[in-house]
Specification:
single chain; 150 residues; alpha/beta; Rossmann fold; four-stranded parallel β-sheet; 6 helices; 4 strands; binds S-adenosylmethionine
Length: 150
């Protein structure tokens, strides 16, 4: 499939259908439950009230369980449409959830702003060398020339 992950999610239709298409089947529900449980366990040593960057946040699917156990979450995503779904979903958490449109490949804070970061389901959008660079300290991919269907 030939598509650009920087643009694909900037669609209201794609954003609205994101969760239903992936996580509403019986298998999808089990996967979603287990993924949320695993991610919550990964942060268990982090004190409540800590701020976690969710990059990319998408529809806020994985921010939700982290907010539910008392963390603050700042979501970053290149798609305002995906963040709109997140804003709606997470409005009950009020100011503990904030978000902004940002390209995670290029926007790097100069100083630490978060206690921890969650980075789920985005690396497959980068070629391998850029994945390594993205995960490396201070590095970020210079360009995105393709990727794979999530
Ligand atoms: C497969 S979704 C994953 C969303 C969420 N982490 C989850 O697991 O449900 C991929 C997300 O990455 C975002 N994305 C793709 N390229 C990005 C970039 N360069 N910077 C920020 N977000 C990006 C898309 O807009 C989309 O919301």
């Amino acid at each position: 499939m030939n598509w650009n992950p920087d643009e694909h999610y900037k669609s209201q239709k794609v954003a609205d259908e994101y969760d239903r298409k992936r996580f509403f089947s019986p298998a999808g529900r089990v996967f979603n439950y287990l993924e949320k449980r695993t991610i919550t366990k990964c942060f268990v040593s982090l004190p409540a009230g800590s701020i976690i960057a969710d990059a990319p946040c998408g529809t806020g699917r994985l921010a939700e369980p982290l907010l539910a156990v008392g963390y603050r979450v700042h979501g970053l995503d290149i798609s305002d449409e995906m963040l709109d779904v997140a804003r709606q979903r997470l409005r009950g958490f009020q100011e503990r959830f904030t978000c902004e449109v940002a390209d995670v490949k290029t926007s790097r804070p100069n100083e630490p702003l978060y206690d921890a970061a969650l980075c789920a389901r985005v690396l497959m959008h980068f070629p391998l060398d850029q994945q390594v660079e993205f995960l490396g300290e201070g590095g970020h991919p210079q360009s995105d020339d393709g990727g794979h269907q999530p």
